[in-house]
Amino acid sequence: MKKSLLTLGLALVVLTSSYAQRRQRTEEELKPLVKAKDTATYNAWSFEVALGQSKGVRPYTPGYFSSNPNAELGSVRANSFTIGVRYMMSPKFGFKFDLASDRLKNNTSESLPFDVQQYRFGAQGVINASRLFGVEKQFNRFGLLLHGGLTAARITPKYDSPVAGEVDNFNKTENTFGLIFGLTPEVRISKKLGLQLDLSMISNFRQHFAWDGHYSETQNNLAGQMLNASLGFTYGLGKFADHGDYAVMPNKQLEEIAALEKRIGEMETLMNDTDKDGVPDYLDVENNSIAGVAVDTKGRMVDLNSNGIPDEMEAALGRTFADKNSVAKAIDAAGNSTMVAKFINEGYVATFFDTNKTKPTNVSTEGIDFILTYMRNNPTASVDIIGHADEIGDSERNKKLADQRANSVKQVLIKAGINADRLNIIAAGEDTSVDATSDEARRLVRRVTFKVK
Asked: Do the beta carbons of residue 76 and residue 53 sit within 8 Å?
């Protein structure tokens, strides 16, 4: 009971330590991903240029209008030119600054002639609606921006009226301010270049010039409204290959989840315990220990006297044959025991060697003693003597070394009185079942095992 509790305690310590180490490693590996969340992976800056048409909606002085009032929509002939820069603070939100020129003229003979020049500056917030609503993948090459903000404008009438007595505001200027709102459908042409169609509405406050250039009384602040439609290009500025509006943004949260799932999967694999000894496979240097036999923290069966036989197995044999002081005497009393033969054939009796040596180590000769006793008490039995080597060095040389080790053990048994005809040499060569980089693991496979027949 105490031994079982000790084994369980060691297993819990190993599992807890392993989990803590793996958790710490997982957190360290995820730091670059978390840090990457705050690092741009797209061209945040872009340059925009557009040509279009502007139409002053209101106010107009009676007798003046920009198009035929009897037409449903009317025609728009005013020229507009816009340039600007945009900065996206994130893939969804940003701001832009632009300069625009609007030239308003009458384009129908039914209106009295007028010519008004407006220059305006805009500072606006921008929303990438495609990304905001998560439909950029469905839109593919297409996108949609929403924008809105403040404008400051200067209005200057450019028509010098020839009518005698008419108030002439030629080249007089007025500064005003207002709001602008719009939407911009866009389509990608190349990785950095996109085509945009912008539709905007501008509302000016504290405006005294009508769009035909006539001046209202100072106390009459007009609310000027203008519509603008323009077609232009946007070009991404920066080191990345794609324009920020169209770049595929990595989902950092999904990447973190995937990384965590991968780490958990690796941890589950590492926590496998094939031989059920309470030591995870990745720490277990002896991954074939007998069920119920005590092991150390590296999964090796406990063999304090280093005779190649697990201590608990020795104790079990001693109890079985009523002599707890000598396994050899137990075998002598048992004679041709099926259990002892199975014990030998499964590799629990062995003798071990140092690197490149053919003489058994001093502490492992009891394995030969075990076989000698068995052979003497079973005179009709024969035994295969199986030589092994680790995988360091040339394979052919290792096979020869394994053969020499088996012959060395054979000579010891012959000198002890066992007929050579009962001893069969087998050179198993390299044993590749353990980690070749581990000195301790390689020590386990530099051995000679036996198989009785």
From this structure: yes
